[in-house]
Amino acid sequence: MIPVRRIILVLIGALILASGCLDTTPADDYQDWNLTLAGDEEMVLTHPEIRALPAAEGYGYSVSTVGIKHGPNRYRGVPLADLVLAAGGAGEDDLVYVSAEDGYLWVFGMDQVRGEGFFTFDENLKEVAPPPLRVILAYEQDGSPLPFNEGGPLRLVIITESPDVITEGSSWVKWVDRVEVQRR
Predict the structure, then answer these.
(1) Whole domain around residue 150: which residue ranges?
(2) CB 176, CB 97: distance < 8 Å
(3) Is residue 158 a part of any domain in this protein?
(4) Which pLDDT band, with edges at 50, 70 and 90, does 30 fall under?
(5) Residue 14 domain flag
(6) Per-residue pLDDT tens digits for 66-103
(7) Is residue 144 part of a domain?
(8) Confidence of residue 32 (pLDDT cuts 50, 70, 90)
(9) Read out DSSP for 37-96?
(10) Could you give the CA distance from residue 39 to residue 181 in angstroms, rounded to a whole number?
(11) Number of domains in the chain
């Protein structure tokens, strides 16, 4: 017979592990999330202000550096190019730094801001010619607010019209709180 104490310890351990997998940040908290745009101008946009901007929609499908696929999902968000314009625009040689609340940073060239210069893959992770891509700051996934455990409230996502195009996930910055144009 298994001792009751051992069963209780196993159940407590399972509950602790399961609680770490839950999204503990409700969508209502996103109202307090801000995005700083920096360039010639610096401004702070609230989450409702970001959602009010013209949006783009498409499929996003990524692969991690260890080969784990995420997606495909349908995303909605503001094109990164529009946010760069709101920050005062950028020249062809300038860089765009997208950073997150946790300190993660990804640097994009202007070609990437326009959706160019990315590697794309098929379901077997074989490189394929890239279709038209768009880089967006997503706030919605599959018709619902982007969950916190998926990088919400704001996550950089590379979208396309096809659900079977995969891009590298390392540029999919989670929990974005700053977009900055760096002049060169």
Answers:
(1) 23-182
(2) no
(3) yes
(4) confident
(5) no
(6) 999 999 999 999 999 999 999 999 999 999 999 999 99
(7) yes
(8) confident
(9) EESSSEEEEEHHHHHTS--EEEEEEEE-TTS-EEEEEEEEEEEHHHHHHHTT---TT-EE
(10) 5
(11) 1
Return the CATH number at 85.
3.90.420.10
pLDDT of residue 23 exceeding 90? no
CA distances from 134 to 80, 81, 93, 167, 175 (A): 8, 9, 19, 11, 19
Residue 20 has pLDDT above 70, yes or no: no
pTM: 0.84
**DSSP class of residue 23?**
-
- Euclidean distance between CA atoms 157 and 167, whole angstroms: 9
Q: How far apart are CA 77 and CA 53, in angstroms?
A: 9
CA distances in angstroms from 159 to 118, 120, 137, 146, 154, listed in the order given:
11, 11, 10, 15, 15
Mean pLDDT of the chain: 89
Q: Which is more confident, 28 or 138?
A: 138
For residues 136 and 158, give the distance between their C-alpha atoms in angstroms, rounded to a whole number: 6
d(CA 80, CA 83): 5
Q: Does 161 fall in a domain?
A: yes
Amino acid at site 17 = L
